[in-house]
């Protein structure tokens, strides 16, 4: 995106007519779109991605899956950095699968990247909400492509943290009848140095939630980072070590069955003989299903299905690579490497 000029702005307004003005006026604040379903007990939602309790415990809502890449720790670190939170008071929570928590900041990263900072503030709410609507229909909550930190983290979590800090400073200034410019946020506390007044984020949270979260708050310089770039224990590791972590394979419903697949060794091969005597006496087997290019073993437990599939004697015929062996593949490689 190039530089926004007066002529560009007027031209864009002429193209869309009154709809531009209407859009700027009516576009909801993305950081206020959330649902009370994420609240428990006395938690207070400051904006879409962060909530806090009166006793100063901060929870960051993360819309990405933890797949071993550390995103459940990186996202809270980025938000806490801009919020000026005490890392010891921060925890994380997986975002519910609701449209309010779609990864709309992926669009900012893919479409505009750093150029989004050049969008005039008067247009920003409309653009931001438009990306949210696109995410609802086309993105949802996805994890992949190394986008969590560089897009959702950079354009979403940091912004959410800075917006939360702004709201807390405004709340403190209003309560103490002082200028917000004279208030400082640090270690989950706001302080007004001239008067010596101070309060925790938790004590200010209710009042802060009444303020509008800014969509383009000022972000910190990397030179001022205290949390980002440091080595902190990852949130996902303890549960993976003690076995309490839940994976997709752990999901169960009443009467659930499991299937293990025996594939044809070559593409296009067809099962022509299934020796069920080879698994005689094995428990929990519900059915052997013959497919076009494979055989499925259905059982009442995953391990029974897996081990039975390994033991079942199946004969395949045909396929595009019939008779093709590993030895033949190596011979072909050798031939190509030694040819002129």
Would you mind describing this structure in some detail?
The protein has 340 residues and is of the alpha+beta class. Helix content is 36%, strand content 17%. It has ten helices and twelve strands. The strands form four sheets. A four-stranded mixed beta sheet has the order 1-2-3-4. A three-stranded antiparallel beta sheet has the order 5-6-7. Helix 1 packs across helix 2, helix 4 (105-112) packs across helix 6 (148-176) and helix 6 crosses helix 7 (201-208). The longest helix is centred in the middle third of the chain and has 29 residues, at 148-176. The radius of gyration is 28 Å and the shape is elongated. Mean pLDDT is 88; it is low at 6-25.
Overall radius of gyration: 28 Å
Residue runs with pLDDT of under 50 for 5 or more positions: 6-25
Shape: elongated
Q: What percent of residues are in strands?
A: 15-25%
Number of strands: 12
Counted by DSSP, the helix tally is 10
Percentage of residues in helical conformation: 25-40%
Largest sheet: 4 strands, mixed
Q: Structural class, from secondary structure content?
A: alpha+beta
Span between termini = 52 Å
Average pLDDT works out at 88
| Major sheet: arrangement of strands | 1-2-3-4
Give helix and strand order, one letter per element, not per position. Answer: HHEEEHEHHHEEEHHEEEEHEH
Blueprint of the fold:
Blueprint: H1 6-16, H2 18-26, E1 44-47, E2 50-52, E3 58-62, H3 71-83, E4 90-94, H4 105-112, H5 124-138, H6 148-176, E5 183-186, E6 189-192, E7 197-200, H7 201-208, H8 237-242, E8 258-263, E9 270-275, E10 285-290, E11 294-299, H9 302-311, E12 313-317, H10 326-338
Parallel strand pairs: 3-4
Antiparallel strand pairs: 1-2, 2-3, 5-6, 6-7, 8-11, 9-12, 10-11
